[in-house]
Design a protein that fits this description.
Length: about 450
């Protein structure tokens, strides 16, 4: 690229833009996170998901994250709620974003059985509020006192739009598989839960409906970000965006993910769009010298961030076998609503103090939500085997060997043995990126 071309791109990226769209995004995000934090508390999930379990599954690389004592845990949620409100009001935006990010992500990492894609997205957005230069113009004081607010450089909008676009694109890219496109699974299975709905239940029960929704979902995720970015199709695309995400929210239990995506999609609109709705916004200073810079450090950060977000979801290609079965490289890759798995698992234990093989039933030791995930997540099967070994060692056992009898069904297929029953799982390293050879291959190629 020529020097003139590079300079032209840099000028476009550093051109000052109205910050009101970012103000709206930050305020709505803070309010949504405050409501979500209250919801988590009101529903009793702090106790049920974090305090009640005697054992917590941990993430690779974050095994040091533990559930703190009850008083400290409640303090984390209080700080989280206050930080979310501070983001809404624009009070110390970077400090508030840091506090929210730290508390939210710490809670997220306490229990792997709670993993959801939108938790990861919320952590990313909160972190970006710490790094990106949005704190200057996004203060409550500037708005309430009608002070002129500083313009935002265009690259901030471009960067955030690219992040949202990657979420959509990889969600659609992940749907390009035979289960989703050729067999309409797992949508067809899930839609059977609505047979009791009057009139619409009959429609949802039809296989044609499942196919239509599967293909429409794939096309939507792959292309909606393009139509949102193009001014001529933006309004219609956002209307479709609201219809799509609201429908998904009504039909499937995916928490606040739909609302986060509906909010994030507003970033594609013209930066001054909130001024048409909120007349009280103060004027924006967009003079010739306003915010026309893009520091080298931020250029490097944005480049590395986008490269990581582009490549990390593709790491599943490094592993053999279908990722929806092995789930190697599945998490943190925007693979949304792709699998319906059921299963059961028991462990066979041998040691110097056990004459005959003893069976351990995790269903009796874990909380129901943990057991459901354990039955279908191979890394959790391995982690729990190592946990059992540690427990037995404390009881004086030696030469411990633990084998798993696990059976899993994927997207309506017949249940099959999922783990090689001859492999001592305690001899398998738990902290590794290597392919898990002890996972048995998927036997039935197609769901039906």
């Amino acid at each position: 690229m020529t020097l003139m071309g590079t300079k032209s791109i840099l000028n476009r990226l550093t051109s000052p833009k109205d910050p009101s769209s970012l103000i709206f995004f930050r305020m709505a995000f803070g309010l949504l996170m405050f409501a979500s934090t209250l919801r988590f508390v009101i529903y009793g999930w702090v106790t049920d998901l974090l305090l009640q379990p005697n054992f917590h599954f941990s993430y690779f690389g974050f095994r040091f994250v533990e559930t703190p004592p009850e008083s400290i845990l409640w303090m984390l949620f209080i700080i989280m709620a206050m930080a979310a409100l501070a983001l809404f009001y624009g009070f110390k935006t970077r400090l508030s974003a840091f506090a929210f990010f730290l508390c939210f992500t710490w809670v997220e990492l306490m229990e792997k059985a709670m993993y959801l894609n939108h938790y990861y997205l919320v952590s990313l957005i909160a972190f970006l509020f710490i790094i990106l230069p949005t704190h200057v113009s996004h203060s409550l004081n500037s708005i309430t006192q009608r002070k002129t607010i500083h313009a935002t450089p265009n690259w901030v909008y471009v960067f955030l739009r690219l992040q949202v676009a990657l979420v959509y694109f990889y969600a659609g890219f992940a749907k390009l598989n035979s289960d989703w496109l050729l067999y309409a699974e797992p949508l067809y299975t899930w839609l059977q839960n609505y047979l009791h709905w009057p009139v619409i239940g009959t429609l949802l029960n039809r296989i044609e409906t499942a196919y239509l929704m599967s293909w429409a979902g794939a096309v939507f995720d792959l292309t909606i970000w393009l139509f949102l970015w193009w001014p001529k199709t933006r309004n219609g695309a956002y209307a479709l965006c609201i219809f799509f995400h609201f429908t998904v929210w009504c039909l499937f239990p995916i928490g606040v993910f739909s609302w986060v995506m509906m909010l994030a999609a507003t970033l594609f609109f013209a930066p001054n769009w909130p001024r048409h709705l909120f007349k009280a916004l103060p004027p924006s200073h967009q003079g010739p010298n306003a915010t026309r810079h893009f520091p080298k450090a931020l250029q490097l950060f944005c480049s590395l961030w986008l490269v990581f977000q582009l490549l990390f979801p593709l790491r599943y290609l490094l592993y053999p076998g279908p990722v929806n079965w092995t789930e190697e490289g599945f998490r943190f890759s925007w693979r949304v609503m792709l699998t319906e798995k059921t299963g059961k698992i028991e462990y066979r234990v041998q040691s110097n103090k056990i004459q005959n093989t003893v069976r351990i039933y995790p269903r009796q030791r874990l909380e129901p939500f943990q057991y459901r995930m354990l039955c279908t997540q191979w890394d959790m099967m391995l982690e729990y085997a190592h946990h059992l070994k540690n427990e037995l060692q404390k009881e004086g056992h030696q030469n411990i060997q633990i084998y798993a009898d696990a059976f899993v069904s994927l997207n309506g297929r017949a249940s099959q043995r999922a783990v090689d029953p001859r492999i001592d799982l305690t001899a398998v390293p738990i902290n590794t990126w290597q392919h898990a050879k002890w996972i048995l291959p998927l036997e039935q190629e197609n769901p039906r």
